[in-house]
Amino acid sequence: MAEKKVDILGMQVLDCNIKDGKVTLAIDFFDGQKKRDTRIISISDPEVLAVKIAIDIKNHVRKESPNTTVLLNSEELAIEHMATFISTVRNKIETIQNMKVADNYLKMLDEIKHLKAVFSKKKAVV
Question: What pTM was estimated for this model as a whole?
Answer without folding.
Answer: 0.86
